């Protein structure tokens, strides 16, 4: 068993890391302390890191995290048994180390994947030591307890899967859905690359508490991907006030105005950038003057030009989502916030509102809005 | 039609006015049924809203901003009347996205 001790990492640095990780994951007060206690007595977690069709950016992100040096800390928490960019071993010795770990830790090792997996031509587009990525992933998943897909390529296919996707690249989730690899609990940490502390905080949570933080419908940790970049953007005030830069060198751009009209995708992008920031909390792409590319969203490479104005949220939303916005923006002030508990039947709502007979319903909604509201209510109250 | 209206009225207004000069309640959040939403009643509503969203795990995601008490209480008498609520809702664009 290896535990953090004075010879490897100072107590202060260790506690600081735990506090940061707990805060990033939005854990309740006191969690940092219990996380530190758990980490100090937990044996290192055996971890195999597989890199497939990728650019090494995700590994770069992890290793370039700030003090307390994340990679050093991670070596106290995890036993990185295989990582073909970072490990000292090469060739047959490297492969042997991985195989030994798969055998010794079968059923309890944690698999981390970055890069997408090619499926065209029987997977021949990318091989490691003569074995296709698909085959290697399948074997490692069979021995794994869970898998973390780091980066947009591993999560959603990313750049290699962009149209026309010549290698038939897929993310881990899609392969599992298609029954092409064994099914295991999955955590997606998309981003190109993901924020470094996002990777380390999720791994620390797994080691300390034995499970992953709460996930959303795309298997992303809610605490890290629950808000759009826009929601915490430092230029948000300018957006609200309608002050938009029109060109990269105009007066508005120099004054730090909102970059929405220059193509910023922050409004539709769920990521931890704005909250956690990059380079040890220094800045974000938007803060340094460039629009958000939306790199953590599925298919971001195929969503048109990075510099084309993003569609407004409402236009991209489904009808039911528009209906929800209407309900939450109007109805909840007088009716139950849970639409399932609304006493009027969904089919009757539009007519009642059109009739204009009911007190408090004298504001006008258009036919489209009424249809969206009805659809939302039907979904909530079938 | 009249019968249906009465039924609807009964359904939507579970607490009826207790005195002739008390306006009928217009909101389920008017828990004491005095025809107005007090600051405490509004705070309870807001807090519940936030908790429900947090539990659903989509804290404020694409959700319209909840108006504040002071934005609605335009005559500053410390309570929200039906008219004030109507006016506040009319002032904001419907289905407003943040």
Structure report:
- The complex is a heterodimer of chains A (382) and B (98).
- Chain A is α/β, with parallel strands linked by helices and 382 residues long.
- Chain A folds into three domains: 182 residues, NADH:ubiquinone oxidoreductase-like, 20kDa subunit (Rossmann fold, 3-Layer(aba) Sandwich), CATH 3.40.50.700; 84 residues, Cytochrome-c3 hydrogenase, C-terminal domain (Cytochrome-c3 Hydrogenase, Chain A, domain 2), CATH 4.10.480; 64 residues.
- Helices cover 38% and strands 10% of the residues of chain A.
- Chain A is built from 17 helices and nine strands.
- Chain A has a five-stranded parallel beta sheet with strand order 2-1-3-7-9, sandwiched between helices.
- In chain A, strand 5 and strand 6 form a beta hairpin.
- In chain A, helix 1 crosses helix 2.
- The N terminus of chain A is likely disordered.
- In chain B, 18% of the residues are buried.
- In chain B, strands 1-2 form a two-stranded antiparallel sheet.
- Chain B has four helices and two strands, in the order αβααβα.
- The radius of gyration of chain B is 15 Å and the shape is globular.
- By secondary structure, chain B is mainly alpha-helical.
- Chain B has a single domain, classed as Recoverin, domain 1, CATH 1.10.238.
- The chains are: A alpha/beta (382), B mainly alpha (98).
- At the A-B interface, helix 15 of A face helix 1, helix 2 and helix 4 of B.
Features:
heterodimer, A: 382 residues, alpha/beta, Cytochrome-c3 Hydrogenase, Chain A, domain 2, 3 domains, 38% helix, globular, B: mainly alpha, Recoverin, domain 1, two-stranded antiparallel ribbon, 44% helix
């Amino acid at each position: 068993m290896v535990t953090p001790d004075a010879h490897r990492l100072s107590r202060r640095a260790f506690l600081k890391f735990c506090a940061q990780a707990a805060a990033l994951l939005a854990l309740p007060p006191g969690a940092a302390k219990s996380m530190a206690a758990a980490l100090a007595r937990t044996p290192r977690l055996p971890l195999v890191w597989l890199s497939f069709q990728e650019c090494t950016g995700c590994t770069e992100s992890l290793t370039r995290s700030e003090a307390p040096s994340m990679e050093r800390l991670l070596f106290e928490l995890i036993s990185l048994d295989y990582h073909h960019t970072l490990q000292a071993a090469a060739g047959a010795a490297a492969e042997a180390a991985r195989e030994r770990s798969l055998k010794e830790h079968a059923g309890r090792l944690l698999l981390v994947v970055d890069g997408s997996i090619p499926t065209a031509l029987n997977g021949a587009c990318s091989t490691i030591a003569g074995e296709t990525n698909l085959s290697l992933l399948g074997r490692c998943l069979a021995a794994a307890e869970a898998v973390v897909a780091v980066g947009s390529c591993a999560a959603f296919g990313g750049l290699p899967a962009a149209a026309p996707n010549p290698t038939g690249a897929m993310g881990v989730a899609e392969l599992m859905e298609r029954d092409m690899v064994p099914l295991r609990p999955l955590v997606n940490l998309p981003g190109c690359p993901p924020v470094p502390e996002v990777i380390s905080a999720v791994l620390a949570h797994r080691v300390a508490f034995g499970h992953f933080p709460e996930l959303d419908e795309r298997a992303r940790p809610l605490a890290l991907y629950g808000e759009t970049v826009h929601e915490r953007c430092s230029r948000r005030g300018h957006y609200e006030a309608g002050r938009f830069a029109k060109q990269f060198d105009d007066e508005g751009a120099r004054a730090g105005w909102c970059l929405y009209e220059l193509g910023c995708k922050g409004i539709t992008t769920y990521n931890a950038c704005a909250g956690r920031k990059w380079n040890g909390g220094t800045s974000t792409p938007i803060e340094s003057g460039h629009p958000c590319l939306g790199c953590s969203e599925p298919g971001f490479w195929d969503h048109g030009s990075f510099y084309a104005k993003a569609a407004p949220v409402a236009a991209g939303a489904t009808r039911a989502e528009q209906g929800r916005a209407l309900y939450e923006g109007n109805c909840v002030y007088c009716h139950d916030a849970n639409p399932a508990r609304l006493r009027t039947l969904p089919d009757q709502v539009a007519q009642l509102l059109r009739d204009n007979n009911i007190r408090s319903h004298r504001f006008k909604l258009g036919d489209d809005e009424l249809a969206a509201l009805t659809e939302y209510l039907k979904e909530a109250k079938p | 039609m009249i019968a249906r209206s009465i039924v609807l009225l009964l359904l939507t207004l579970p607490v009826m006015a207790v005195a002739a000069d008390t306006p009928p309640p217009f909101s389920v959040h008017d828990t004491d049924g005095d025809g107005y939403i007090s600051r405490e009643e509004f705070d309870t509503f807001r807090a519940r809203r936030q908790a429900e969203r947090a539990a659903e795990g989509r804290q404020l995601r694409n959700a319209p901003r909840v108006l504040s008490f002071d934005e609605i209480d335009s005559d500053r008498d410390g309570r929200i009347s039906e008219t004030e609520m109507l006016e506040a809702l009319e002032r904001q664009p419907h289905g407003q996205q943040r």
